[in-house]
Amino acid sequence: MLSARSLFQEILDDDRSFQLFCSIAASGETQGGWENGRIAALVPTSMRDLAPKIVRHGADEDKHGRLFNALLKKRELDPVAVPFETDYTALLEARGIGLAHEKLRADEQLTEQDIVVYLSHSRVTEQRAADQMVMLRKYFGDDPEVGRAVRMISSDEDNHLAYCNEELLRLAKAGHGRLIHRTLQECAKSEIAVYRQVSLAVMGYMGDILCWPAAKSALLVTGINAMYGYERAGGWRRMVGLAMPERLDALNAPVTAAPAV
Fold first, then answer.
1. pLDDT tens, 5-50?
2. Whole-angstrom Cα distance, residue 154 to residue 131?
3. Which of 3, 17, 79, 136 could form a disulfide with 23 if both were Cys (CB 3.0 to 4.6 A apart)?
């Protein structure tokens, strides 16, 4: 029977598919760490109170990248190049979602509107990350090889999502409500398309590595497209709603060191 658990177990059990999975994950997390670091350095003077939280966000992302690389090292595997069509972060940027890297590489201070865009983009992508980690924690939270990393990353993603909700609600009260609403919707509608594109590409590579039969690959494609259809029809709305989280000031705590894996 084809299930999320059996699918990921198959990917984790094979060295080559595990290598690609961890490389893609590590690359995305490391990129997120760099982006947050640059944003923290360029925060406008009027919003300097956010800088430590953005730094913390970036430090968590860097830590996640190290965790995935540590999982590779534990199996005596090296990271591999990430195919462009599987690069979630780069594909989002190509669609104009988030802050352009060209802007982040400059030394010019960002605007308040830039920070609203950053937080709105993060609210959408962190929802995706949190949802994925809930699934992985459910099936592999007690796994002897990846369980500790999965549990830590999942907790961090929950913190990131709480932080985005809290800060966006605060900024909405400060007069940025219309920009937040518009940006969230634009981000979510683009994100679901990119997620579908990346999912199809990743499963294509995994199918080649694991020699999946055509029928299995076709079933996965159907499932990915069905999920996209659901999200396009209205499922995307879960990514744009704002609610005050139970976990307040979630990023105002020391960074937790990456555990040995």
1. 999 999 999 999 999 999 999 999 999 999 999 999 999 999 999 9
2. 9
3. 79
Listed in sequence order, the residues at least 6 apart from 115 whose beta carbon sits closer than 8 Å to its beta carbon are 39, 43, 44, 47, 50, 171
* CA dist., res. 237 & res. 14, Å (int): 36
Cβ(44)–Cβ(111) below 8 Å: yes
Q: Determine the Cα–Cα distance for residues 180 and 259; give it in Å rounded to an integer.
A: 36
Q: How many helices (H) and strands (E) does the chain have?
A: 9, 0
Give 3-state DSSP helix, strand, coil % of the chain, rounded to 5: 75, 0, 25
- Give the Cα separation of 94 and 178 in Å (integer): 24
Instruction: State pLDDT tens for residues 226-258.
Output: 999 999 999 999 999 999 999 999 998 665 666
